[in-house]
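Quick one, probably user error.
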């Protein structure tokens, strides 16, 4: 049997295909862009630019310190402090400026200035606004999303087909060309569900044109409208799991509010303490100045009696030593007073009263030493209700509960139910295709179930154990914190009572030492005592006055401490704070 020679199909293109290519070349309105000539230069240019950028090395010396105008040598070298020497006995030169201004401040005015200007409070009051943005960010997880996609496809593919040998009806396999131009567009909305699923509304439009074949619809249009839902059934399912980030952000916002309230209490409590320390320092200076005047008076008496021949010359030396001793006490008291003034200036942070200003601050509020009945069990209960540290721990325990539930959810298998409903349409024009969609003649349903079960799942189980351990640790921390709060309240109450007893003892000591000083002074004038005896009695009198002042100030400070330990503040007026919302620009 003779075999008929069949042309090699790998190199043979039927005449009809060649004719189709020729006819297509004549139809300029259907010819696609010459992508090969356009894409190849563009791709080459892109590759060249990408390689050039990848080869460029950034200079790290341009950033950081260079942007601040600081050299690296300044950071790596530490220069010694050079101080010029001065004459040891020469007084320090007075600055060439007018006398220091005096400003009188009451405790209420100081509190108001601190609430308005204190830098620590300004920083703390921004934190609630930051925490609120975190809540808004987490709530935005469930915002709907509009999406739009478009895609242009040109397909030039070889297609296996059956041809006829020229001049015969004998079929043989051969290769034909298929050139298709397709423009696809897709519009829709995705709606995240609080149950963990996703609801999608989709409207698709497709224009297809076969450039080598004539079909009934060429170009043809296809449209579809679909609704699909994807819902996890175990892992990632449920409102409690999917609202976990919002709950955590809400807990953190409340914790931030509690910490801000604690910051306000801390700043105002510190202000009250600084105010009473300043009061004590100023009264201490007044006492030392008064004692210096008494020492000067003793020196004058000693000189007068020595000149009259009634006392020995040594009495003058003793009196001068007493004056020098009181002068040293004045210098120390003045330095302490300046330190206390700077502390108060820093806390209130008034624009016209900076820390370095020479302005003298005079406290006008006097101590009110009133004894109070302290119901210790009631104070402890009040502290348990009002202390922000305990409230923060309770909120953290709620957060731990939510975290445990979320970690337990992640140990479940991933099972997802998917359903899609779509209506399709096609036609020679886009309007015909949409008309078919509107008539709902071609409806599709799709229902699917997917499952993914991890083998072992050690990672999720470890995260669950860590969440449980964290909560148990927090419970122990809460019990320890409650004991510390009880101890702090009871210690503060004892300190209030002890300082009250100190006031009574210091007053009695001041009265007795004042009488002793007067007696010693009279006996000195009678020649029974020496200047040393008078000066010793005078020093004891001054020390007793200083002890009474410290007892008064410490009593006021102990009242501040017991109020802070119960989560409250002294005073009859409530303090209400509001968060600071800074401008949302980049400056």
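Nope, works fine. Designed sequence:
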């Amino acid at each position: 049997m003779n075999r008929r020679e069949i042309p090699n199909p790998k190199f043979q293109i039927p005449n009809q295909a060649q004719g189709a290519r020729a006819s297509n070349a004549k139809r300029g309105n259907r010819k696609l862009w010459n992508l090969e000539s356009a894409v190849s230069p563009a791709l080459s240019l892109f590759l060249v630019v990408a390689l050039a950028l990848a080869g460029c090395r950034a200079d790290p010396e341009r950033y950081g310190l260079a942007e601040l105008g600081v050299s690296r040598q300044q950071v790596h070298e530490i220069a010694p402090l050079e101080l010029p020497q001065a004459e040891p006995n020469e007084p320090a030169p007075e600055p060439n400026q007018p006398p220091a201004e005096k400003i009188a401040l009451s405790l209420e005015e100081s509190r108001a200035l601190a609430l308005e200007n204190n830098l620590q409070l300004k920083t703390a009051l921004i934190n609630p606004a930051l925490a609120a943005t975190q809540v808004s960010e987490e709530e935005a997880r469930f915002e709907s999303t509009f999406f739009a996609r478009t895609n242009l496809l040109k397909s030039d593919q070889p297609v296996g087909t059956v041809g006829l040998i020229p001049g015969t009806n004998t079929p043989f396999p051969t290769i034909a060309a298929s050139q298709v131009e397709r423009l696809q567009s897709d519009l829709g909305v995705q709606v995240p569900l609080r149950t963990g699923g996703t609801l999608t509304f989709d409207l698709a439009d497709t224009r297809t044109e076969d450039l080598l074949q004539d079909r009934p619809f060429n170009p043809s249009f296809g449209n579809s409208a679909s609704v699909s839902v994807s819902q996890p059934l175990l892992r990632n399912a449920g409102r409690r799991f999917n609202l976990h980030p919002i709950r955590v952000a809400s807990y953190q916002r409340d914790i931030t509010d509690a910490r801000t309230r604690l910051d306000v209490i801390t700043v105002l409590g510190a202000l009250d303490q600084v105010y009473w320390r300043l009061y004590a320092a100023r009264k201490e200076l007044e006492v030392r100045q008064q004692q210096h005047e008494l020492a000067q008076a003793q020196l004058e008496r000693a000189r007068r009696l020595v000149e009259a021949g009634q006392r020995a010359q040594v009495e003058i030396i003793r009196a001068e030593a007493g004056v020098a001793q009181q002068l040293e006490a004045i210098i120390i008291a003045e330095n302490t007073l300046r330190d206390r003034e700077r502390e108060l200036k820093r806390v209130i942070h008034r624009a016209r009263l900076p820390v370095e200003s020479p302005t003298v601050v005079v406290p006008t509020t006097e101590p009110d030493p009133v004894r109070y009945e302290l119901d210790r069990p009631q104070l402890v209960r009040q502290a348990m209700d009002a202390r922000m540290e305990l409230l923060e721990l309770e909120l953290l325990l709620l957060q731990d509960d939510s975290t445990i539930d979320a970690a337990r959810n992640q140990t479940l298998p991933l099972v997802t139910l998917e359903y899609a409903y779509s209506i399709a349409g096609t036609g020679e024009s886009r309007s015909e295709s949409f008309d078919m969609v509107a008539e709902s003649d071609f409806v599709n349903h799709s229902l699917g179930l997917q499952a993914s079960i991890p083998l072992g799942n050690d990672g999720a189980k470890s995260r669950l154990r860590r969440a449980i351990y964290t909560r148990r640790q927090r419970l122990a921390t809460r019990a320890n914190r409650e004991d510390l709060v009880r101890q702090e309240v009871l210690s503060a109450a004892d300190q209030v009572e002890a300082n009250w007893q100190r006031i009574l003892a210091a007053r009695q000591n001041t009265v007795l030492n004042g009488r002793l000083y007067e007696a010693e002074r009279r006996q000195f004038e009678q020649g029974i005592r020496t200047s040393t005896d008078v000066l010793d009695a005078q020093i004891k009198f001054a020390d007793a006055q200083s002890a009474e002042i410290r007892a008064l100030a410490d009593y006021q400070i102990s009242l501040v401490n017991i109020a802070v330990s119960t989560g409250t503040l002294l005073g009859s007026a409530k303090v209400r704070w509001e968060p600071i919302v800074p401008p949302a620009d980049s400056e």
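The mean pLDDT is 84.
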